[in-house]
Structure formats: structure tokens, C-alpha cells
Design a protein that fits this description.
The structure holds two protein chains of two kinds. Chain A is an all-alpha fold. Chain A is 86% helix and 0% strand. The longest helix of chain A has 53 residues. Chain A starts with a helix and ends with a helix. Chain B is α/β, with parallel strands linked by helices. Chain B has a single domain, classed as Spore Coat Polysaccharide Biosynthesis Protein SpsA, Chain A (Alpha-Beta Complex), CATH 3.90.550. Chain B has a four-stranded mixed beta sheet with strand order 3-5-4-6, sandwiched between helices. A two-stranded parallel ribbon of chain B has the order 1-2. The radius of gyration of chain B is 17 Å and the shape is globular. Classes of the chains: A mainly alpha, B alpha/beta. At the A-B interface, helix 4 of A face strand 2 and helix 3 of B.
């Protein structure tokens, strides 16, 4: 077995997995695009090893076999940084949502209390709804 | 904590809001019984996240001034009238209640260090006893303030970046009745906190020159 075939198998398997995940709705579209690019890069570099030597001379790295590893690690670092940026955004959204939920819940309680003061008879006629609120807290 | 609520209600004309940071003890009922409104956060957000929830509540209801104080009893409600008066008279956007006797050497050192790198001359930058005016409320309720973790330098730097004025007023504080300082509890926490805040300071440093000039202009006027 040659390195080209190994790389080809890895690339095809990766591409297949990505398609499967997108199909099953486990992977968001924009992520799928990134992973497809990775699969394509593996395929190209694996099937046409001279590309690596050419890239080595272009970038000035005189031991070309290390090049795919350097590129790979660079990509992983980029991806990790992007993930932390995204996580910060989600953290901000989550905090603001939590605060808003607490504020709205407080307003709901206050409004309900005011309503109960104004129309005690009508409120007490709907014990089921009131019970559900107590149980949900 | 019910004592704190009652104290604030008797010493000022403020409406009292207690923020329950996802604790499961009986604080909510106690605070409500003492006449406070309560915000119950479903997830724990930490000191600043909880404070910001209260500030956002105030903004939504159109309050002009927000006073924050810790519910663990270290901030005496008796000090509030003087603090509010200082806020009224000075015209500063933010007044920080500072207790210089309570400051440990480590805290003084930290304050000196941060004064050196940020230029913010605040003695007790961790003090949770503060008065915010409307502009400060608007600034601190914004999305920009949501990723801060502590209510100290990050908050102060944000306020200064927006051109708000800070002032310190000397206050008496009692020792905490329950729980120790969250930040200054162990050396590892302190180191982590110092590094975290230093990074924040350097990230904000571009805002420094502008405010410095503005402050100088205000001083000469």
C-alpha cells in the first residue's frame, strides 16, 4: 500500500463522514464547509505528493514532509481560537438571557399579584393554572 | 440579609431589589418578607452578572439612580444617606464607598499596581458599595459590560472609557458577617485575578489617552 492510497482513504472517509453528519442534521452548514476543505486538502496532498515538495520550496521549508504537520497544527490552532471566540459570544448571550429571564419572571410574579389583588374571585376560579406556576418554580 | 433590606428601607426612600444568584437557600422568601423585590437568576452568574441583572432591571423600570451593596452585612445601610448626598453634591456619575481602614496591605499594593497601569486612581476598587447615575446605568446595562467577571476594574475602565466621572467617598464598613472575600481568599485566586485583570487593562489601554485629556479639561474648567 502506498502513502497516496492511505491518504486517499482518509480523505474519502472524512468527506463521507461529513456528508453523513450533515445529512443526519448533526453538523451545522458552515462547519461542514470547513471540514470539507480539510478533507479536500488531505486528498490533494495525499494523492499528489509532489504538491508538498512544491509548497516546501515556495514557503522556504526545506524539509517538506514536516509541512503538512505544520499546516495541520496551524489549522487546529485557528479552529480552537474561533471556538473560543464563539464560546465568548454564547457566554454573553447566555448571561443576558439569564438576566432577562429573571427580570421577566419577576414582572410576571408582580403582575400576577396585582391582578390577584384586583380580582381575587376570578383568579381563585383557576386553581390549575396557579398550581402549575407553583410547581414549575 | 433581611436586616440589610430593612436597614435600607428605613434609612433611605429607595426601592429595594435583592438578586438571588441561583442560591437554593431561603433568601428569596426572607427578602420578600422584608419588603424587597427579588430577581431569581436561574443560572449562577457571579457577583457582577447578578449586579448587572439588577442594573438592567433598574434601567427597564426607569430608575435614575442605583445603589449597590452586598447583602452579607459588610455595607451598613446607615452609611447610605451620606453616600447619596455625596453623589448629589459632587455631580460625579459614580460614587464608590471606600473604607480605608478595611484595606489590607495586599489590596493596597494591588490598587497601586493597577493605578500604575491604568491611571485609575481608586483606592478601594473592589468595593461593592457604589452609587450609579443614569448614564452609568445605561453603560453598565449594555452588552459590552456583560462579559466582565468582577465588578471592579473592568467596570471602572468601561465607565472611564465612556467618559464618566468616578469619585470615592469615605465610608465605615463592618466585617463580613458571613463568607470571606471571594477574590482575596487564597494566593492562587489572587494570582489568577491579578493576571486576568492585567490582561483586561492592557486590552483597554488604547482608551487611556482620550479620557486623560478629558479629565484634564474638566479639572481646568
Amino acid at each position: 500500500m502506498t502513502a497516496a492510497i492511505t491518504a486517499g482513504i482518509i480523505g474519502v472517509l472524512l468527506a463521507g463522514t461529513i456528508l453523513f453528519l450533515v445529512r443526519r442534521d448533526h453538523l451545522h452548514g458552515s462547519f461542514a464547509l470547513w471540514w470539507f476543505a480539510i478533507a479536500a486538502a488531505i486528498l490533494i496532498l495525499g494523492l499528489f505528493p509532489p504538491v508538498i515538495d512544491w509548497l516546501g520550496t515556495v514557503t522556504g521549508i526545506y524539509y517538506p514532509p514536516i509541512l503538512p504537520i505544520v499546516i495541520g497544527i496551524g489549522m487546529i490552532l485557528l479552529r480552537l481560537l474561533k471556538m473560543d471566540v464563539d464560546r465568548s459570544r454564547y457566554e454573553r448571550q447566555m448571561r443576558r438571557l439569564t438576566q432577562k429571564l429573571a427580570i421577566v419572571e419577576q414582572e410576571l410574579r408582580e403582575t400576577r399579584d396585582e391582578l390577584a389583588k384586583k380580582r381575587p374571585a376570578e383568579i381563585s376560579e383557576t386553581p390549575v393554572a396557579a398550581q402549575r406556576v407553583v410547581g414549575g418554580r | 440579609m433581611a436586616d440589610v433590606v430593612a436597614g435600607v428601607r428605613t434609612n433611605t426612600s429607595c426601592d429595594v431589589l435583592v438578586v438571588d444568584d441561583a442560591s437554593n437557600d431561603a433568601t428569596t422568601a426572607a427578602a420578600e418578607a422584608a419588603g424587597a423585590r427579588v430577581l431569581c437568576l436561574p443560572n449562577q452568574l457571579g457577583a457582577w452578572g447578578a449586579t448587572q441583572a439588577g442594573i438592567r432591571f433598574a434601567q427597564r423600570r426607569g430608575y435614575r439612580t442605583v445603589v449597590t451593596l452586598d447583602a452579607d452585612g459588610q455595607h451598613d445601610p446607615l452609611e447610605l444617606p451620606a453616600l447619596l448626598a455625596a453623589h448629589r453634591e459632587s455631580g460625579a456619575n459614580v460614587v464608590i464607598g471606600t473604607c480605608s481602614e478595611r484595606l489590607s496591605d495586599a489590596k493596597r499594593l494591588a490598587a497601586g499596581y493597577f493605578r500604575f497601569i491604568t491611571g485609575i486612581a481608586v483606592q478601594d476598587f473592589t468595593s461593592g458599595l457604589r452609587v450609579y447615575d443614569r448614564r452609568a446605568i445605561r453603560t453598565l446595562a449594555s452588552r459590552e459590560a456583560s462579559l466582565l467577571d468582577y465588578q471592579d476594574l473592568g467596570v471602572l475602565m468601561l465607565l472611564r472609557k465612556k467618559g464618566l466621572t468616578l469619585m470615592e467617598a469615605p465610608t465605615r464598613m463592618s466585617p463580613r458577617r458571613s463568607g470571606g472575600s471571594r477574590v482575596f481568599s487564597s494566593w492562587r485566586m489572587v494570582a489568577r485575578y491579578m493576571m486576568h485583570t492585567t490582561v483586561l487593562c492592557f486590552a483597554q489601554i488604547s482608551a487611556r489617552g482620550r479620557i486623560g485629556r478629558r479629565r484634564a479639561a474638566k479639572a481646568s474648567a
